Amino acid sequence: MRENLKKVPKMRTHAQAVVIGGGVIGCSILYHLTKLGWSDVVLLERDELTSGSTWHAAANIHGLHDSTNISRIQHYTMNLYN
Predict the structure, then answer these.
(1) How many domains, the chain?
(2) Digits of tens for pLDDT over the chain (82 positions)?
(3) Beta-bridge mates of residue 17
(4) What global pTM score does this model have?
C-alpha cells in the first residue's frame, strides 16, 4: 500500500525571507524582493493565490481615500503593469 502513496516534497526549513499570505501585498513583496535579486524567498498561502480578502478589493484600487502614500502606491502599481 505504501508504494501507491505519492512522495510529497518536504517544506523548506530555512529561507532569507518568508512572506505570509498570497494576496496582492504578499505577492507584491515577493515580486519586489526577487526583483532586488533575492532568490532564497518563500511565499506561504493557505489556499489559492489572491483567494482571501484580495479578491474583494476590486484590484485593490479604491476610489476615495485621504492618504498621499496610498495614492503613490496606486500610481506606482498601475504604472508597473504598463
Answers:
(1) 1
(2) 556 567 777 888 899 999 999 887 888 899 999 999 999 999 999 888 877 766 666 555 556 667 888 778 778 877 887 7
(3) 41
(4) 0.65
Domain contains 21: yes
* Within-domain flag for 34: yes
* The three cell numbers locating residue 55: 479578491
In sequence order, which residues have a C-beta less than 8 Å from that of residue 50 and are 6 or more positions away?
A: 22, 23, 24, 27
Residue type (1 letter), 74: Q
Neighbour count for residue 55 (Cβ, 10 Å): 14
Strands 41-44 and 17-20, by their bridges, are parallel
Inside any domain, residue 43: yes
Residue entry with cell 518563500: 42
